[in-house]
Amino acid sequence: MISDLVDLRDVALTPAERSVTSAVVERLIRTAPEWVDDTAWQARARSQSCHLPVRLLEAIRSFRYDGGLSGRLSVTNLPIDVASLPGTPNEADSVERSVTVPAALAMLLGLQLGEVIAYRDEKQGAMVQNVVPVRSLARSQSNGGSVPLEFHTENAFHPDRPHYVGLLCLRPAHEGQVGTRVASIRRALPLIDDASRAILHEDRFVTAAPPSFRLASRSAPRPVLEGSTDDPDLCVDFHATTALDEPAARALARLREALMEVRADLVLSPGDMVFLDNRLVVHGRVGFQPRYDGSDRWLHRVFVHLDSRRTRPRRIDNGSVLV
Hints:
Blueprint: E1 11-12, H1 15-29, H2 39-48, H3 54-65, E2 72-76, H4 101-113, E3 115-119, E4 129-131, E5 149-152, E6 164-171, E7 180-184, H5 185-188, H6 194-200, E8 205-207, E9 225-226, E10 233-234, E11 241-243, H7 246-261, E12 264-266, E13 273-277, E14 281-285, E15 298-305, E16 321-322
Parallel strand pairs: 1-2, 3-16
Antiparallel strand pairs: 2-13, 3-15, 4-15, 5-14, 6-13, 6-15, 7-12, 7-14, 8-11, 9-10
Helix pairs in contact: 1-4, 2-4, 6-7
């Protein structure tokens, strides 16, 4: 039962654990090929991820078993040297293909949780993607925008959406004002009436692809809540999901209200990484004012799947990129 669940403990690495993690990263950085998208490098990273500190591995394994009430896990004090970072990128579709310390960290933790994947039609199929403000996208509902970003399940329109989303902070926002806004269906569900819940479980909603895919595509009619009625999965994008009738629209509005009531704002610092269970949690962003001068907020993003066999027909050359 949901009432029996508790939030998972976040992990703050000790100095000794940070040193162990740094040593694992350094071994990967010195190992050819020097590209995170290369399958040979990914195989080495998958192996090396087993050498991360035991307490960190235990927390990741526990989160994989169950995301708790909040549906998220935070790891702090990861070894990122802010002084050595280049300026924050500010171009559209920015990705990180080189094996840098932050990119290696994002991959190592993601590969312990599951398999890091990407989509051919989004961000050029790169494993590690940059979440940065882009001037030309400032008013868009995208990771490059700076207006408030609506609550959404990552790639909600897609039949192979990620099971988890990982966000690693390289550079914080100015004055720490930008929060990654999150809300868990496990917290929101008790606030939704039974009639609305029943409607949300029916095939009365469609969801369009996000701007990053540049596709005129949308899902078939489907429910917003799936699975167990007392502990459902959530799949919605409040910017891109449309109800097919008026009662469904009212139920969708009630769901958003409930999620807003239980929301939490996460302000990440350099070396903080948060994993979100994409089946339990929607996320968004508060609005902010970028400077576009190389000092803006900079996150690395990775997507994680649990079952590679299920997506084999849609993965290019049995790799990590989905068509």
